[in-house]
Design goal:
It is built from 3 helices and 11 strands, in the order βββββββαββββαα. By secondary structure, the protein is α+β, with helices and mostly antiparallel strands. The longest helix has 13 residues. It is elongated, with a radius of gyration of 19 Å.
Length: 183
C-alpha cells in the first residue's frame, strides 16, 4: 500500500500563547477512512548555531530547562522574531545575545523539522566560523545562561556521556557532521 496524505477535516484552536498555538486537527486516514484528532503545535521557525572559534572550540551554552528540570548543554539558538525575514539575521542575533560572540562567517547548513508528529515549524541550522567574543550577553528575562567553550576533540565524548542530550542540538550537530565537519 502506498502512503498518502491525510485529508484535513477541520481545525479547532485550543490555546494561543505568546510563542505557540495549540490546535486539534481532525484528519481522515486514507487507509481506514477513520476520522482522527491530532494535537498540533504551531510556532515560529527556530534557528540553531554551531559556533566554532579559531581555537578549534565549539561555543556552547548551559541553562536550566523547565521541561527536563535540569541544566542542559546546548548550542545557541531560538525563535525567529516576527520582524526577521531572513533566518541568518536571527541566527546572528541569537549567537550574539546568548553568547556575546560574533562570527566572521555564517553559513546555512540546512533545515529540519523539530518533531513532525506535533510541530509545524522548521529549524534552520547555521554554521558560524571564526567566532570571537565581542561583548556580554543580552539574555531574555526567562534565561539564565552560562557560556562554555569546549575543544572540538571533546565534543563526541560529551555526547556519549549524555552531557549533550537536546534532540534539536544533536540533530544540528549531525547535520553539521553530514556536511563534512571534521571529527
Amino acid at each position: 500500500m502506498a502512503l498518502g496524505e491525510w485529508e484535513r477535516l477541520g481545525d479547532e484552536s485550543l490555546l494561543r500563547y505568546k510563542v505557540f498555538h495549540v490546535r486539534k486537527s481532525r484528519r481522515r486516514s486514507p487507509r481506514t477512512g477513520a476520522d482522527i484528532g491530532f494535537f498540533l503545535i504551531d510556532t515560529a521557525d527556530w534557528v540553531t548555531v554551531v559556533a566554532l572559534t579559531t581555537a578549534d572550540e565549539i561555543v556552547l551554552v548551559r541553562q536550566f530547562r523547565q521541561g527536563s528540570e535540569r541544566v542542559a548543554f546546548e548550542i545557541p539558538g531560538g525563535l525567529i522574531d516576527p520582524h526577521e525575514t531572513d533566518p541568518a539575521v536571527a541566527a546572528a542575533r541569537e549567537l550574539r545575545e546568548e553568547t556575546g560572540y560574533e562570527a566572521a562567517r555564517l553559513e546555512l547548513l540546512g533545515e529540519m523539522n523539530p518533531n513532525p508528529a506535533m510541530f509545524s515549524n522548521r529549524c534552520h541550522v547555521f554554521l558560524a566560523t571564526g567566532c570571537r567574543r565581542v561583548g556580554g550577553l543580552a539574555m531574555d528575562p526567562g534565561e539564565d545562561i552560562e557560556v562554555v567553550t569546549v575543544p572540538l576533540a571533546e565534543l563526541d565524548e560529551r555526547i556519549r556521556r549524555g552531557e549533550i542530550e537536546h534532540a534539536v542540538v544533536l540533530g544540528s550537530l549531525a547535520l553539521w557532521r553530514a556536511r563534512g565537519a571534521a571529527t
